[in-house]
C-alpha cells in the first residue's frame, strides 16, 4: 500500500491531525519539536497509535545545522527548540557549533560523525517510549512500550553534491545500522542536477544496495512544479524505477501529485504538509515568523490556489462543490467559500488543512486502485477541462500555468516506454 505521510511541523497542526486520522498512514515530526514538547508530543503519538494505528518517523534535526543560520535567533543564539534537541541528543553538537557555526558531516572527523549518528539513532528509538513510560507514573508499567517506537530510524543526512558526500553518507548508514534496533531508512537528499548525471544517479542506488538497505526517503530539492522541466521529471521517474528494480522501497520526503503518479512506477509513499509541504529547499536564513497564506487545494489542477482564484476557476468551469466531509459541512457553493474567507480569514486555515489532507488521501487511494492508463486519461481530461479557464482567470498570476500536468504525463510515459523497449531487447 502506498504510504500517505503527513508532516507534523508545529503545534498548530494538532487539530487537523486529531480530526483526520483515518486519512493518514503515518506522521513525520522534527526531532527539535519532540525535544521541546517532551510531554505533549509523545502523548499525542501514543494516542494516534492506539486510536488509529497511525505510526510516525522522527526527522533528525541535526541536519538543520549544515548551512545558514535558521536555527539561531537575531542575537545569534541557538533557538529554544534546537537547543533542547541538542541537550537530548548530544552536547557534542553544541561544541561543534561553537567551533565552526555550521555542521556538515563531510567536514567532520569520522569519530564525530559516528558519535552524532549513533546519538541521533538512540534519540529516535528511545525518547518517545521513554517519555510515555515516565508519564504513566512510577508505579504503572505500560506493556510493550516499544510498540510506540517510530516506524524506522532516519539517519543523519546531508545534501549529496560531491564524492565526499557519498563517502560520509556511507559512514553514516554503516554506523546507523550498527546502532539501530529498528529498520534504517536513509534520506537521499539530492539536487535535480545530480540525478541528471546517470553515473551519480546509479551511485545513489549503490549507496543503498552496498549497505543492504531496502527502504529510503528521497528528497529532490526544489521540485517546484512551476520550475521543473520534463527532462528533470524523467530523471526522477527513472531513479524511482531503478530503486524499485533493486527492491528498495522509496518514499518521497516532499511530494505533490507527481509522487502519487509515480506509484505506478514503484514509488511506495510520499510526505506532504497539512498546508503546502509538497516541495522544499534547504533552509539557509532565519524564518520571518510570518504565517503562510491560506490557500485552497484544488483537486483538478493538483495544486494550491488562493481562495479567490480557486473560486473563480471552479465557477468558470461549472465544477461541482468538493465532496469531502469538511467542504460538505461548511459550504453549499463556491461562493460560500469566498465569503467565509472574507468574513473569517483567521479561522479558515483549519478547514483548508483538513480539506487538503482528505483530498490527498483520496487521490492516493484512487490512483492505487486504477491502471496507469486510466490515471493518465483522467488527469489529461481534467487538464483539457481547466487549461483554458485557468489561463483566462484574472485571479491567477500570469506566472502560473498548468504545463506541469503534461510534463508529468510525458515523463512517466517516456520512462515506461524506455523500460518496455529494454524488456523487448
What would your notes on this structure say?
The protein is α/β, with parallel strands linked by helices and 425 residues long. It folds into two domains: 270 residues, Aldolase class I (TIM Barrel, Alpha-Beta Barrel); 130 residues, no CATH class. Helices cover 50% and strands 10% of the residues. It has a four-stranded parallel sheet with strand order 3-2-1-8. The chain has a four-stranded parallel sheet with strand order 4-5-6-7. A two-stranded antiparallel sheet has the order 9-10. α9 runs parallel beside α10 and α12 packs antiparallel against α14. The longest helix has 27 residues. The protein starts with a strand and ends with a helix. The mean pLDDT is 94.
Concise overview:
With 425 residues, the chain is α/β, with parallel strands linked by helices.
At CATH level 3, the topology of the largest domain is TIM Barrel
Report the average pLDDT across residues: 94
Q: Provide the CATH superfamily of the largest domain.
A: Aldolase class I
Number of domains: 2
Q: Which stretches are low in confidence, meaning pLDDT under 50 for 5 or more residues running?
A: none
Secondary structure tally: strands: 10
Overall 3D form = globular
